[in-house]
């Protein structure tokens, strides 16, 4: 009968409307990661990424952060615990923008230093100080490169706290080597 057809058509229309309503309003807009810094030091190229992803990434634990659209690479050989303080470098691959950053994480320190702080690098005949003014991608990049150069030249490192007390860093040769390996891979990825 025509009345039952109208009722079925109304039910179908209301169900269709409800489904369309749910579909349109249940979807959330895609999260857009903040734009990366416009710094050429962080730029990666297809050949450097292919080398890193196909050869070097097998030595790393990879964590993907969907919110920021980045892959985080941490060398697998780092110890889980340590009694001597050091900085653990993590390579952050911002694949959407063809950039890579260096994230430095303090390990085995009671309290992480807040910028500004200084690190003393020395041998029996030389001494230099690295000042860290900010903990941005640029600040961590520059600080990591300074530490890398000091470790390559065999210098000992000390964190100078606000009260002028000093804490030795990277006393273990294995930790020094792991830092150098990670920084070397980061430099190849950013073609430095």
Q: Which segments are poorly predicted (pLDDT under 50) over 5 or more consecutive residues?
A: none
Number of strands: 8
Residue fraction in strands: 25-35%
Order of helices and strands: HHEEEEEEHEEH
Secondary structural class: alpha+beta
* Average pLDDT number: 88
Termini separation (Å)? 80 Å
Radius of gyration: 25 Å
Strand numbers in spatial order across the main sheet = 1-2-3-4
List the helices and strands and how they pair.
Layout: H1 2-26, H2 46-54, E1 60-65, E2 70-75, E3 86-94, E4 99-107, E5 117-122, E6 127-132, H3 137-152, E7 156-160, E8 166-169, H4 173-189
Antiparallel strand pairs: 1-2, 2-3, 3-4, 5-6, 5-7, 7-8
Helix pairs in contact: 3-4
Textual characterization of the structure:
This protein has 192 residues and is of the alpha+beta class. Helices cover 35% and strands 27% of the residues. It has 4 helices and 8 strands. The strands form 2 sheets. A 4-stranded antiparallel sheet has the order 1-2-3-4. The chain has a 4-stranded antiparallel sheet with strand order 6-5-7-8, covered by helices on one side. α3 crosses α4 (173-189). The radius of gyration is 25 Å and the shape is elongated. It starts with a helix and ends with a helix. The mean pLDDT is 88.
């Amino acid at each position: 009968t025509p009345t039952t057809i109208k009722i079925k058509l109304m039910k179908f229309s209301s169900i269709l409307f409800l489904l369309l309503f749910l579909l349109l309003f249940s979807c959330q807009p895609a999260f857009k990661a903040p734009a990366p810094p416009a710094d050429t030091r962080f730029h990666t190229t297809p050949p450097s990424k292919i080398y890193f992803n196909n050869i070097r990434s097998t030595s790393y634990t990879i964590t993907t952060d969907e919110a920021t659209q980045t892959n985080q690479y941490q060398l697998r050989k780092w110890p889980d615990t340590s009694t001597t303080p050091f900085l653990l470098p993590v390579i952050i691959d911002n694949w959407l923008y063809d950039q890579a950053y260096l994230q430095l994480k303090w390990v085995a320190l009671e309290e992480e230093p807040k910028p500004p702080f200084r690190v003393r690098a020395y041998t029996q005949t030389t001494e230099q100080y690295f000042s860290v003014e900010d903990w941005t991608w640029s600040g961590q990049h520059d600080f990591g490169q300074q530490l890398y150069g000091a470790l390559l030249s065999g210098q000992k490192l000390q964190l100078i706290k606000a009260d002028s007390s000093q804490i030795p860093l990277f006393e273990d040769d294995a930790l020094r080597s792991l830092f150098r390996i990670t920084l070397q891979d980061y430099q190849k990825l950013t073609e430095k």
